[in-house]
Amino acid sequence: MALETAILVPVLALLVAVMVAAGRITMAGGAVDAAAKAAAREASLARNPYDAATRADAAARHTLDQRGLSCASVSVSLDTSEFAPPAGPARVRATVRCTVHLSDAAVPGMPGAKSMTSTVVSPVDRFRDRSLAPAPGIPTKGRAL
């Protein structure tokens, strides 16, 4: 009985650690997807690319915080190439990248971190006023649009 226990306990502990790591990856993927969706939606409501980038970044970070996901690094990139006037169909594409720590899962052979990426496209209201210029009074020097 002691020999069976000595063999089974490490195997069961490893199985539990793998399940915890898989659950963490799944939860992180869902949080990154939600952050990308929130970023795209907020960007689609903006009136110019500068405001869109600011709103998208804030929405993505807020969503990740709400979901309890602590990322080693977060980046939000936004494609507003279809944002220019005239009014008509347009889309905004938001991509959120988050590096999730896995080193504390203690699974042999598992990397210490995993990069999660999600891209979501959101339509811009075709009748909404929009421009390529930032809102009045907002400096653009040193900032990429």
Topology:
Blueprint: H1 2-44, H2 49-66, E1 71-79, E2 90-101, E3 113-124
Summarize the structure.
This protein has 145 residues and is α+β, with helices and mostly antiparallel strands. It has helices at residues 2-44, 49-66, and strands spanning 71-79, 90-101, 113-124.
Descriptive key words:
single chain, 145 residues, alpha+beta, 3-stranded antiparallel beta sheet, 2 helices, 42% helix, rod-shaped, disordered C terminus
Give a structural overview.
With 145 residues, the protein is of the alpha+beta class. It has two helices and three strands. The protein has a three-stranded antiparallel beta sheet. It is rod-shaped, with a radius of gyration of 21 Å. The termini are far apart. 27% of the residues are buried.
Strand coverage percent:
15-25%
Q: Which segments are poorly predicted (pLDDT under 50) over 5 or more consecutive residues?
A: 138-145
Spatial gap, N to C terminus = 68 Å
By DSSP (H or I, 4+ residues per run), the number of helices equals: 2
Approximate shape: rod-shaped
Largest sheet: 3 strands, antiparallel
Structural class: alpha+beta
Mean pLDDT: 81
